[in-house]
Structure to design on (362 residues):
């Protein structure tokens, strides 16, 4: 299986399977002399970690990260810093239950990658999906923590803004609330509603989708290129690479189709530090290049395909059958995708920042 690497100057290669010994990644292209310890990475991993509430899978993984290479104590101060060489990170799997999947090893689960993997490679890892499992995203979060160190003046934050048909009230948006509820929701009242709403879905053995919003503030002007390295195109590709994501929009996104030219244009006036935009329908990107405004990306996550309700399918020999997926699964996989979306945003921005320096020397 190829194509396990993303990025150009800041390159991330992930490895490992859901029910293997460990998962991990190698980060190549990180500049030297950046302070980096395992504690710098662990905080982000803890936010994505499963089993922290009744609204996520009860798989108990501590997701403790180990730095295997690419750092050393600074000879003049003792602070651990990057060396400029590849940084290898390892996260051991400790709570695999492969037997949960033994009954479905010959049956394709609807909504999963079972059929396509077997059709392409001639085999599939039925134990939790192998590489197609969202377990792989822990390695992206680890890489994203390193990317954030390359972006000291940029703040990347994410939030859940819709679950099923229920949207937050944007007038009640409070970033401080995101860390106070299990949904990463910036609207306190809607977070309280989501508790009873998702409880009902979970008890029925079903699942629901969600929309997440990732915002990067402090992004400098000039990241990206006009044709084949558009910042918004590469952000869209990064978000679409996350498990279960089926749609991405930048700024006003699909809503821009409902606006007139007068409404959609982000008008400009002279500010104290250059041009000042009066709105941000473009999501901080024009012509594939960052404007200096907040970069805003939203993505839609489909409902978890593993549900208790019997679904029609076929087995490996082509026989029609029904399947009911057992095991431990997220009733709304979108919840834990918030730190993953943040990580992918950070990785893309770090990559473009390094490419920008190589292009223009600053």
């Amino acid at each position: 299986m190829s194509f396990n690497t993303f990025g150009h100057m800041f390159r991330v290669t992930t490895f490992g399977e859901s029910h293997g010994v460990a998962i991990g990644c190698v980060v190549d292209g990180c500049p030297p002399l950046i302070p980096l310890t395992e504690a710098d990475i662990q905080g982000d991993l803890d936010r994505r970690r499963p089993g922290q509430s009744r609204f996520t899978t009860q798989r108990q993984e501590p997701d403790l990260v180990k730095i295997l290479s690419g750092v050393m104590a600074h000879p003049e101060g003792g602070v651990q810093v990057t060396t400029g060489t590849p940084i290898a990170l390892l996260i051991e799997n400790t709570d695999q239950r492969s037997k949960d999947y033994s009954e479905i090893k010959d049956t394709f689960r609807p909504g999963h990658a079972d059929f396509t993997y077997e059709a392409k490679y001639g085999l599939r890892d039925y134990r939790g999906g192998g590489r197609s499992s969202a377990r792989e995203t822990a390695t992206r979060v680890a890489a994203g923590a390193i990317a954030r160190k390359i972006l000291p003046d940029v703040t990347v934050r994410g939030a859940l803004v819709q679950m099923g048909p229920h949207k937050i009230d944007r007038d009640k948006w409070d970033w401080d609330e995101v860390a106070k509820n299990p949904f990463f929701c910036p609207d306190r009242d809607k977070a309280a509603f989501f508790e009873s709403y998702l409880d009902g879905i979970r008890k029925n053995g079903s699942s629901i989708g969600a929309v997440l919003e990732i915002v990067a503030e402090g992004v400098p002007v000039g990241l990206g290129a006009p044709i084949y390295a558009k910042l918004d195109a590469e952000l869209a590709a990064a978000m679409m690479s996350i498990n279960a994501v089926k749609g991405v929009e930048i700024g006003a996104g699909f809503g821009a189709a409902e606006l007139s030219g007068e409404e959609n244009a982000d008008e400009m006036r002279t500010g104290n530090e250059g041009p000042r935009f009066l709105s941000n329908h473009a999501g901080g990107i024009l012509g594939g290049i960052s404007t200096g405004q907040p970069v805003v990306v939203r993505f839609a996550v489909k409902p978890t395909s593993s549900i208790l309700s019997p679904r029609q399918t076929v087995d490996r020999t082509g026989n029609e059958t029904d399947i009911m997926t057992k095991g431990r699964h997220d009733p709304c996989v979108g919840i834990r995708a918030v730190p993953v979306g943040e990580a992918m945003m950070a990785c893309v921005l770090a990559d473009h920042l390094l490419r920008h320096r190589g292009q223009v020397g600053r």
